[in-house]
Amino acid sequence: MIPRSLLFGRGLALSHAFSNQNASTVHQQLSMTAWNLRSSLRNIRTLSLMSLWPFNVKPRDFSLPNASWRPEMSKAYEYYNALCEIEGDEKRRLWRKLPSYNRVLKYTTGGVYLSKIIQSKARLFTRNIKEPGAAFEYVVFMNKQEKRCVCVFQAGHLLEGPPGHVHGGAVATMIDSVMGTLAGYMSGPVMTANLNINYRSPIPLGSVVLLHSALDRVEGRKFFVTCRVTSTDESKLHTEATALFVSVNVGHLFGTRF
Ligand SMILES: CCCCCCCCCCCCCCCC(=O)SCCNC(=O)CCNC(=O)[C@H](O)C(C)(C)COP(=O)(O)OP(=O)(O)OC[C@H]1O[C@@H](n2cnc3c(N)ncnc32)[C@H](O)[C@@H]1OP(=O)(O)O
């Protein structure tokens, strides 16, 4: 909101201008008032940029590069990002970088109201750690036409399981998130009904891996998805997974059907 002091300050200047009866002084005062108003508008614009509004109209995109990214992460990001920028109009582009927010619901159409109703303090599990690089650093590139996506993932030090390696639950979280994002992108809201994971080789903590996810088939509301976690050069297989996602309507989140 605009601070009260700012509004009242300019309001006083305005009333003071019209209390003076002298014509030239009034003219002078009006010029001053116009200047004051212009300056107020400038201030308001500046203040809105300083995030004093109750709603953050431009949410932070957590999938953009930050200082915690290792060169390998940046290199993989640049590779896939370049695929997104291949010439041609946006609709014909095969690859698209997905933005990533800490509350998906809040930034979907009409979702701002739902996000207030459903656990307003809730935040996306993978995006709620403040320190950049400490946990899940990732970015998803979607190829809708080929019904697949690739996620570049850097596992931070808070994700330790076996000493020096990534916790299996953290790997499962990323797999579920990436597969769920693919299924959701293809169909709208989904929930994981079934998830099977085979851990083939441990992922060193701090390393960068790729998650390749593909839509295998669709049967009515059921979306069968696969995922492979590999090293960035794809020479090493870390994990394989299959999952079933079932499309749901918003009512399902409330425990009702409508
Ligand atoms: C808009 C795009 C944006 C994209 C950008 C999004 C970005 C966003 C990023 C975040 C991404 C996070 C992704 C995390 C995703 C979770 O973590 S979800 C949380 C974990 N999952 C849950 O809590 C789900 C709990 N389970 C349920 O709610 C319900 O069981 C389900 C899964 C919704 C299904 O219930 P239902 O709707 O009543 O459906 P139901 O009739 O039981 O089953 C439908 C069909 O599925 C089959 N089925 C159901 N469960 C199973 C099962 N376990 N095994 C085999 N078959 C099954 C049934 O047999 C049935 O088959 P048919 O008879 O039709 O052939």
Automatic annotation (TrEMBL):
Q: What is the protein's membrane topology class?
A: Peripheral membrane protein
What is the superkingdom listed in this entry's lineage?
Answer: Eukaryota
Reaction equations catalysed? decanoyl-CoA + H2O = decanoate + CoA + H(+); dodecanoyl-CoA + H2O = dodecanoate + CoA + H(+); hexadecanoyl-CoA + H2O = hexadecanoate + CoA + H(+); (9Z)-octadecenoyl-CoA + H2O = (9Z)-octadecenoate + CoA + H(+)
Record's Gene3D superfamilies?
Hotdog Thioesterase
EC numbers on record: 3.1.2.2
**Cross-referenced Pfam families:** 4HBT (PF03061)
Where it mainly occurs, coarsely classed, is membrane
What family name appears in the similarity comment?
Answer: Belongs to the THEM4/THEM5 thioesterase family.
UniProt protein name: Acyl-coenzyme A thioesterase THEM4
The record lists the organism as: Electrophorus electricus (Electric eel)
Q: What is the lineage of its organism?
A: Eukaryota, Metazoa, Chordata, Craniata, Vertebrata
